[in-house]
Amino acid sequence: MPTTSFSNLRCIFAWSSVVLLPMLIILAIGIPWWQRLQTLNTRLTRDQDQLVRYQQLVATIPQLQAELAQVKTQDKNTKAFYFSAATVSLAGAQLQEQVQEMIRTAGGRPVSTQMLPLDEKEQPPRVRIRLQLQATNEALLKLLYQIEAARPFLFIDQLSIRSAANDSPDPPAARRRLPNNAPPPVPPRERDDLTVRLDIFGFVLGSNAP
């Protein structure tokens, strides 16, 4: 009887070994493989999410490029409204030269030009000049139109106009008494020259010292 029981135990142990050993081998190989598979799945999901985000970013590149080009264009156009000079003095020289050329183009005659003091508190700084000129009515209108359309922007601060005819004395023919039967004298050509005094200013971009 003991011999039979021992034989049965040996059989059970042998069969158990046959069954358990492959299972242990399978578990020893399968568990790391399953863990590796889970890691790969997690990484794949994360990479897919990143890929979707990258695709979304790539899809916005044309829009961003268009917006960047628009900003650059706007910045370039905005800079055209200002004097670009290292100092306000240089900007003032540019302003004087520009306005004097406008006066000559319009048919007027510049008389004097004066640089006005700078207000250091203004940002962006403003460059101002005071000038005096002589022009006809037509020439003055042309000059005002040029100032309105000028780039960089120009602004008129003060304007005074005086007719040169008011300063000239009456001609002698107007004071001389003529006979009753004499024809009226031909009046001299009326002077249409105007003496104009105005302050003009513009803004300076990126200037430093006066």
Topology:
Elements: H1 2-79, E1 83-84, H2 88-106, E2 109-115, E3 126-135, H3 137-149, E4 155-163, H4 172-175, E5 194-205
Parallel strand pairs: 1-5
Antiparallel strand pairs: 2-3, 3-5, 4-5
Protein name: Type II secretion system protein M
InterPro entries: T2SSM_b
Organism: Thiospirillum jenense
What keywords describe this structure?
210 residues; alpha+beta; Alpha-Beta Plaits; 2 domains; 4 helices; 5 strands; 19% strand; rod-shaped; Type II secretion system protein M; T2SSM_b; transmembrane
Description:
- It is a single chain.
- The protein has four helices and five strands.
- By secondary structure, it is α+β, with helices and mostly antiparallel strands.
- The model is unreliable at 186-191 (pLDDT under 50).
- Helix 2 (88-106) crosses helix 3 (137-149).
- Strands 1, 2, 3, 4 and 5 form a five-stranded mixed sheet that branches.
- The chain folds into two domains: 10-81; 88-165 and 192-203, Ribosomal protein S6/Translation elongation factor EF1B (Alpha-Beta Plaits).
CATH topology (level 3) name of the largest domain: Alpha-Beta Plaits
- In total, the number of domains comes to 2
Basic shape: rod-shaped
Using the 3D structure, state the CATH architecture of the largest domain: 2-Layer Sandwich
C-alpha end-to-end distance? 121 Å
Structure classification: alpha+beta
For the CA atoms, what is the radius of gyration? 47 Å
Helix content: 40-55%
Question: SSE order, as H and E?
Answer: HEHEEHEHE
**Helix count?**
4
